[in-house]
Amino acid sequence: MKASNISKRSFYIKNVVFKGNLSDQKTVDRMNGLINDVIYKHQKVLTEFLDPGERDILKKLAGNEVCLQSFGGYLNAEKKRVVITEDWTTVSPLSYQISLFEIEYPQKFVSLTHSDVLGSIANAGIETSTFGDIITDGNGRWQFFGKSELTDFFQYEITHIGHTKVKLRPISSEKILAVEDESKHLTVIASSLRLDAVLAAIAKQSRSQIKANIKNNLVKLNWHTIKDFNIIIEEDDVLSLRHFGRCKIMSISTTKKGNYKVVYKLWQTKRKKRRS
Question: Distance (Å, rounded) from C-alpha 223 to C-alpha 52?
């Protein structure tokens, strides 16, 4: 494969795929490198855990040149590891080298949130790409998926979540929790389908506040950090605002007054409840 084809891939991503700014260039370069390893070294590549935005970049870059298969530990996983091969070959779940961990802690006296768990794992000195989804049954039990090769690290290095002493125990994938869906279906009326207008209506903030959040890299569109608040929102777009939550646009229709009725699915950031 000629080097010019590599630059064509990058050009395509930069000019076609992104609806916002080009802050994902490092991801583009990294994914290009993985694809090149498969093409030039003729070897299978297993990626880290990739979020949907990263997998979207990988898919666009890969085109028809290589084959991609992904798995995150369970059916509807958000973060997944991807196997990249030159030709199609069946990949078993074990090949993704993903382990499931149960978080053991005194549930009777302490409550944990997703942010608690994420923060403690992310601050343990490892990259966030080394672990996948964090899941709960909504009744105090928490689990997460991690790279199997880091099992010892997770077990022996992560002993606290916040001030709570915990034990991380590898368990069989058959014992995965029935994941609680904490999303809500909601509707807002927006005067425009511009990103700042739609997100302002959803988050109940002013458009100037949303523009400031965009400027401070607190807003993502389809898992990509964006800078342009003039982008027109479409159905199936996923918007996220740090400290507020994430939403998926389910449908858009026009009202009699010329405004826009936006139906969306919201996963709102949970704040830790204070104990009295």
Answer: 7
Closest CA to 38 of 18, 58, 8, 12: 58
State yes or no: pLDDT of 248 exceeds 90. yes
Report the chain's C-alpha Rg in angstroms: 21
| Distance (Å, whole) CA 129 – CA 100 | 15
User: Cα(150)–Cα(168) distance, rounded to whole angstroms?
Assistant: 12
How far apart are the C-alpha atoms of 214 and 194, rounded to whole Å? 13
Alpha-carbon distances, residue 88 vs 44, 65, 66, 85, 224 (angstroms): 11, 11, 8, 7, 29
Distance CA 35, CA 221 (A): 25
Report which DSSP code applies to 35. Answer: H
Residue 206 and residue 96: Cα distance in Å, rounded? 44
Positive or negative: CA dihedral 139, 127, 14, 212: positive
The two structure tokens encoding residue 201 = 């209506």
The mean pLDDT value for 54-83 works out to 94
Phi-psi region of 97 (alpha: psi -120 to 50; beta: other; left: phi over 0): left
- Give the whole-angstrom CA distance, residue 91 versus residue 70: 9
Cα 21 off chain centre by: 18
pLDDT tens string 155-183:
999 999 999 999 999 999 999 998 877 78
Tokens matching residue 90: 């069946």
CA–CA dist 149, 172 (Å, integer): 16
CB atoms within 10 A of CB 264: 24
Instruction: Report the alpha-carbon distance of residue 191 to residue 185 in Å, rounded.
Output: 20
User: What is the DSSP-derived secondary structure letter of residue 180?
Assistant: -
